[in-house]
């Protein structure tokens, strides 16, 4: 990290005055107080300064941490410059001790630095980190503010150039301060060229940039349809206000390529449009089906630790199912996706799902999604078969959600989810073989129960099937298309 940067005299004093007024009004105590200012002279740069409050649990008051890697985006420390650590308003010397880690000579309570958020050719993980160009951007306080503990609250003033607007699900005071309960789940879209549509009721708010082959009204319509479907799955709305942010990628990308991040109650999509309107709408619906699922799992439950082995595969499979039942894809399309995924999985290294998520490379992430989706599909078949169609994989999703949504106490995630699997004896072989075990992926027995067969790389409905198989096929969505016949 280079040591250049500029100071903003008086900002901390002003921030403290506002903050004390908020405390007097009964606002909850914050761990961090900060100001984030878009630098008018350096496009793509924000200047950040602030302090730790007395409520910040800092076991080591000489060490300073910033995010260096997140969701495939590495080397984030290199975006920081001009770092200063202050004790009672005076600079204290420090040295770098690791990626994103610095050790001061004495205890400090305040800091300031600049962060370069310009795209700079970055592609991988762009949707998961703060970004800013000359006219707009998306700020994620998690990678802009210092790291303090597992859950961090903050009082943050964001200052933008004249004519720029700000959109967020966070609680914003008239003073312009955002009171953020959990920095890890916070997103603020800023800029002057967003088209904003205020949501109400189940409808989310929208912040959209760029020209597309779909209309803004299509986004609202698709989101409302998909949210309604998932509300039936989970039995309730995902709590709180929702915001969908859609923008083109900051650097060139192939037609139809996309990245997305669903953080807290905000779905943040970077998408390169396709050549034709039909393709564009289909891709948008696909992205929203996946990302809106995450408003429930994992974002609306209290579970500790990383368990993408469960919720990412569940999201992919739930998105396929939703596509069939909402009439966006055919049942055969779902089978084709499962077949292609099975062929990839069959030729891959053997690893359990729970072990696979520990590998930090992009290839392992793709395999995690693939095996997770196939596992969810097998769970669906086995639960439907064992219950005569009375329960399905959606039953398991609802079970996990109801057991662990707030105000439930946070518990270790993998252990908690596996306890829900253990409620259903028919899932025990799947857990042992593929979730905690590393056996080759086999699905022939389960496919037969559903009246399906896999041959020559194709997954299809068998030519002959009995009554139980027909009933199970219907539950999987085989005849869902009939609902859409005029």
Describe this structure in words.
With 486 residues, this protein is an alpha+beta fold. It folds into 3 domains: 11-193, Immunoglobulin-like (Sandwich), CATH 2.60.40.3650; 196-276, Zincin-like; 303-484. 33% of the residues lie in helices and 22% in strands. The protein has helices at 11-24, 216-234, 277-293, 308-325, 331-346, 353-356, 362-387, 393-404, 413-421, 428-435, 444-449, 467-476, and strands at residues 32-38, 45-52, 63-65, 80-87, 90-92, 94-98, 101-104, 110-116, 131-132, 136-139, 154-159, 165-167, 171-172, 177-180, 188-191, 195-197, 205-208, 243-247, 258-263, 266-271, 303-304, 411-412, 452-455, 458-461. It has an 8-stranded mixed beta sheet with strand order 5-4-8-2-1-11-14-13, with helices on one face. A hairpin with a 2-residue loop joins strand 4 (80-87) and strand 5. Helix 2 (216-234) packs parallel to helix 3, helix 5 crosses helix 7 and helix 7 crosses helix 12. The chain is globular. The N and C termini lie far apart (63 Å). The model is unreliable at 1-28 (pLDDT under 50).
Structure class:
alpha+beta
Instruction: Catalogue the unreliable spans.
Output: 1-28
Strand order of the largest sheet: 5-4-8-2-1-11-14-13
CATH class of the largest domain: Mainly Beta
Largest sheet, strands/sense/barrel: 8 strands, mixed
Cα-atom radius of gyration: 24 Å
Could you say how many structural domains there are in total?
3
Count the beta strands: 24
